[in-house]
Amino acid sequence: MNDTILLAHGSGGKLSRDLVEKTFLPFLSNPVLDKLDDSATFEASGRLALTTDGYVVNPIFFPGGDIGKLAICGTVNDLATSGAKPMYLSLSAIIEEGFSVSELERVMQSIKTAAEEAEVTIITGDTKVVNRGQADKLFITTSGIGTIPAGVDISGSNARVGDKVILSGSIGDHGITIISQREGLKFSMALESDCAPLNKLVAQMLEVSSNLHCLRDPTRGGLAATLNELAQQSNVGIIIEEIKIPVKEEVKAACELLGLDPIHIANEGKMVAIVDPGDADKILAQIKRNKYGKDAVIIGEVTGEYPGKVIMKTKLGPSRIVDMPSGELLPRIC
Amino acid sequence: MNDTILLAHGSGGKLSRDLVEKTFLPFLSNPVLDKLDDSATFEASGRLALTTDGYVVNPIFFPGGDIGKLAICGTVNDLATSGAKPMYLSLSAIIEEGFSVSELERVMQSIKTAAEEAEVTIITGDTKVVNRGQADKLFITTSGIGTIPAGVDISGSNARVGDKVILSGSIGDHGITIISQREGLKFSMALESDCAPLNKLVAQMLEVSSNLHCLRDPTRGGLAATLNELAQQSNVGIIIEEIKIPVKEEVKAACELLGLDPIHIANEGKMVAIVDPGDADKILAQIKRNKYGKDAVIIGEVTGEYPGKVIMKTKLGPSRIVDMPSGELLPRIC
After folding, report:
1. Which of A54, A164, A170, A212 could form a disulfide with A141 if both were Cys (CB 3.0 to 4.6 A apart)?
2. Interface A:B, Cβ pairs < 8 A
3. ipTM score here?
4. pTM of the model
C-alpha cells in the first residue's frame, strides 16, 4: 500500500475499501463496525445523550496526546457533562491528499487506546479525502451516544444560589502545550496537554451524590467561557477566588510572556462542577481519589447577585468581572 | 455582525456565541438544541441506528441543492438504509476564515428545509474555524440517530439467492451535475442533483413488505460500488441488465464526453433495494408511488454463481464483470 493518502482513498471504490480494511479496522475492529453497513445498530432504552465535535488541532501530534486522543476524550467528556455513561462513538475523517498513512496509523492507535480507557466503541465512520491545500493534514469529527442513569438531571441551566463551584485541577495545560509547540517556547517543554477521558471521574461523583447540578469541561475559551456560559444559562452570578485556581508554573510563565490569561486557555481533561453546598465536600473528596482529579479544589460559589456574570476576587484584593473571551488568540487549539 | 467568518467565531468566546445565536439558531431552533448544553438528551427505546458522514462537496452550491441539503439527506438516507426512522441529527461545521456569513445562512436555510421535509431535528452541534487556506470554504459532518421498527432486519449481508434488485430511478444525476458545474459543461445545464431524503420512501416500502433484505444508497463510487459491496457482504453474485438501468440523456452525453461510466457516478437521492422475489412487484409498485421513486425499475437479481461479483448483461449482448471503481475521477463529489 502507498505510504500517502491519495484522492482515490476517498473515492468510495477499491482504495476506499483498502483504507478501511488495512488502516482503520486493524485498530478499531468490533462486530458492529465490521459489518460496514451505512449505519450501525444497537439496543438502548431510557434517556440518551448525543454530542458532536470537530477537531482541527494544529499540530496534530503534541505532548500528552494527538488529534485522535483529543477527539475521543472530547466526545466522551461532552457526554459525561450530562451525567451520561458514554457507549458508542462515530468517527468521521477529512484527510488532505498527501497525508502520511503511517501518521494516520499513529492517530488510529491513540484512538484505540483512548477508546479502551473510556470503554467506548466506535461503531460507524466515514472518510473523505480533499485535494492538497484544501484542508490541513487531518480533521476528525466524532459524535457520541451515552445512557443517562435514571434520576440524573445535569444541565448548564441547573445552578442554584448557594451552590459550590469545583474545578478538577490546574488550568491552561492543553492550550499552553499547543501554543508552545507552535511557538517553540523552550521553558514549557516539560508541559503536557491534560487531554483525558473524564467519564469515570463523573461516574464516581454520581456514586456519592445525586446533587450534581452542572458539569462542563472548560475547553475553548477556558474557565472564563465555561463559567460565563453556566452563569448565563442558569441566570445566576458566580463568584470565584483567583488564589484558589491551580495554575502550573510553566503555564503562568508562558501566559506572562504571551500576554494571555490562564482562565481563557483551553483545557481537555478538566471538569467544572456546580454542586449542592451540602454535598460539596464529599464530592470534592471523591474527585481527588481519581488520578485526573487529585488537584481538585472548590474555587467559588453561586450567588443571587450579578445574574449572568462571573466575578473574580483577585489575589491583590479587589474583585473584577470575568468576561467571555473576545477575539481569537489561539486558533486551532482543539 | 461582520459579513465574513473570523477566526474569533471559533474561539469559544463572545463571537462563537454570537454565531450560534444569530446564524444557527434562527434556522435550527428547537427546545433541545436551544439549551446549548454540550450534549443533547432524548428518550428512546429499542433498536437504534447511528450513522455519520462528512461532506466536502465542491462547489458548495449546485443545481438541485447545496452542501447543507446534501448533509441532511445523506445522513437521513444512511439511516433509512437500515430501515430506521431518522429522529435526531448532530451538525458539525468546519469553516474557513473569510467565508461569507450570508452564504452560511443560505446553507442553514437549506438545512432547515431538508430537515423539515425529512422530519428530523438537529439537537446538537459544533463549529470550528480554521485559518484561511487550511480548509476550503465549508465542510459539514452530520451524524444521525434513528429508531428501527420491531422485526426489521436490513443489512448489506442479507441478500439471498433469487432476490430481485430494484433501483429507485436514474443514475449519475448528482455526480454529473457537480462535475458539469466545475467543468462548465453547457449541455448539461438542465441537469440537477437528485439530492433528496428517502426515509419516507423506505417507510412506504416497509408498509407493504417485511422482506426487504438490503438497502443502500449508491453515493460515492455509484451503482457499481454499491452492488459490489452488497455482493461481497452477502457473499452472493449479482446479475444486472444494462438496458434496464435508467440514465438521463444529459448524463449519457456528459459521460461520453468525459470518458466516464454512469454506473461509477455518485447519486444522492436513489436507493438500491434487494428484496424477496415474491414481494418484488408490490415493493416496486409502492416505490413508484413516491415522487422520488417514479422511475424505479427491477434491474437484476441475486445468483449463487460468481459469489462476491457483479455481472452486467450489456446492451450489445455479452456479459461483463462490473468492478469496484478504482482511482478517483471526481474528488469532492459529496
Report:
1. A54
2. 308
3. 0.96
4. 0.96
